[in-house]
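Worked example (supplementary).
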Amino acid sequence: MATVTSKNAYGHSPAGEPVTGPQLVGGDGSSMKTLEEAPLVSGNLSFHDITEMVSVHTEKKTPAAWYAAFGVALAFLGVFGFTIAFLLFNGPGIWGLNNPVFWGLAIVNFVFWVGIGHAGTLISAVLFLFRQKWRTSINRAAEAMTLFAVACALVFPGIHIGRVWVAYWMFPVPNQMAMWPNFKSPLIWDVFAVSIYGTVSLLFWYVGLIPDLGTLRDRAVRQGRMLRAKIFGFLSLGWTGSNRHWRHYERAYLILAGLATPLVLSVHSVVSFDFATSLIPGWHTTIFPPYFVAGAIFSGFAMVVTLLVVARKVYDLKNLITIEHLEKMNIIILVTGSIVGFAYITEFFIAWYSGNEYERFAFINRATGPYWWAYWTMMSCNLIFPQLFWKKSFRRSIPIMFAISITTNIGMWFERFVITVTSLHRDFLPSSWDYYTPTFWDWSLFAGSFGLFFTLFLLFLRFVPMVAIAEVKGVLPQADPHFYGGHGDGHGDGHGHGDGHEHVEVTTPAAAEPAGPDPMQASATSL
Amino acid sequence: MALPLPKPIRNALEVRANEHVGLLAEFSDPGALHDAVVDLRKRGYTRLDTFSPFPIHGMDRAMGLPVSKLAFLVFGGALVGLFAGFLLQWWTSEVDYPINISNKPLFAVESSVPIMFELTILFSALTAIGGMLALNGLPKPYDPLFYSKRFDRVTDDAFFLHVGQADAEFERGKTVRDLFGLGALGVEFVNHSGATDLSQSGEPLDTDAPVLATPPHTGGQI
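After joint prediction of all chains, the assembly is encoded as:
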């Protein structure tokens, strides 16, 4: 049987120097190399270093560059506000909508933003359930991005309904005729799905923030900034880091992750029902829910990469958000991009194979009709460009990943444009065919929504710890009590099972005991 | 376990262990803290709590804490949400304002599933957070531990162990020696009037040191 020297799953000995190629010793005494994971946090940081690196950006004097960026974001937010005011005064006639194309950029933008809003909860919930510990460095920023994207998305259903004074018809309250909304309508499902998604994401984000708000509180006390201490004291709810609290806290976090996982998959499915339950050729397909969800993850991760590539450089977080993290996100972009591309090809094939002439026309018209440019922008941005990520050096190249993250978001915006507009503009009656051209106000509303998004995101970067401090500390090798050695006492209790890291019993060949009776155990741990 | 008491009473005692009056010892790292807890429990201490910047793997077991009961609360919340979603849609379409469309059924479960699902998630999530806060007794703006000047590093890189004064084994001099013997970097006595650093023998280290009247950021609200 292999014997033990102290070892942690990250390839560092307790003293901190890296152990290169720790060796397992099999039953026959031969040594086997194990494959080491790259560390989740680079630079050999202490707990305090991490606190300092993240907290300082919320405490220091506001940098001039932040004001500059915030000014630009506010200008776009002003455009957003002005466009909405202009819309409310004049009605949706200011948009380029026409007779067959009743759904234009407002819907495209709504779906675009909801889609982007999927990455955060996917990273925080789904990757949490799969014990992907690398998520800890990026989940805070990704969840914030989700919240702000959902906020942008929720504006559009509120303003595109035409008669804004009856927006409350979307809520489950009776109207002036004592009638209820039609709960059989996917549009009402959508209101429930997106607003509940926003609510649960906000709560999930806040629960994750509580320990870090406690950190900011305690730092403020030490710095003697009492007003700040009181604000964060209020927000952190009196957090002390008690293990009796962590016990319930971790359970709540696990349950929320379990709840958010089906929720995040349901949201874009319900959004796709808006299209799929209609009878329009090009919309009426059963492939929509999974294809929308894959597209949402695809665009969301692209937005996370776009934002974090900039943020890690500006805020000097390269040791926390390492190139490994970015590479893993790029792999997800590659996978989901390929799923989306496969769905494009599948729906084209099924349109042909179905023998339904309307369905077939709708798809040939997409690719070769008046909107061919939108279709091929979508195809190249979503299916072709992400394939570059098959090459490792491209996955790890900042300029290439930044460019692809941008083209991905362009492509995903065009996907929604293609689905919405090209399916509508040539309907069943050729005499009513028309061409939809977005007007200035369509575009200013879209550009303005970026103002809202970036205003909120910049406020987040300025005032909130942008990396989950407590969670990152928890995945450091020195966070594990076993790291320090000297515990033989009475807790041979199944540690190392189910936490994603094998509890490997490692030795150097010199320290090996003579070949034990159990060669299977040693070889099993090496897997 | 020193006290052979029935489980409900032991659980109640655990809740009262949240009363943070007693000795607060700082340890150097999660490993030392873990070992100290294991050792103190062997000596019969029960009202222990540890404080750390992140949850420490294996600490629940070391402290003998059972798995959180939160999941049961959340299951209740889920059922309420599911039923609320059903009731909302059934009652509005079948009872309050029935509309006959092509003589189709007034209510159908199939088309009600999405909203029932969404409300299930919403109620569960609210219960999970509300239940977590309730079980933890949060928000709790005042805690005597905030008197300790060391303790503001608990959310940064410090690890603490608290032994409640109400513990049956608690005897100030002996407990201080126990804590130092286990490698405590420093021990303080914390109660509702302040925190005092103690020497190895359990005497106040610096009797002239001012004791803060109120934890600084609670604004005197006790």
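Two points are worth noting when inspecting this output. Confidence is low (pLDDT under 50) at residues 1-23, 488-527 of chain A. The CA atoms of residues 202 and 305 of chain A lie 21 Å apart.
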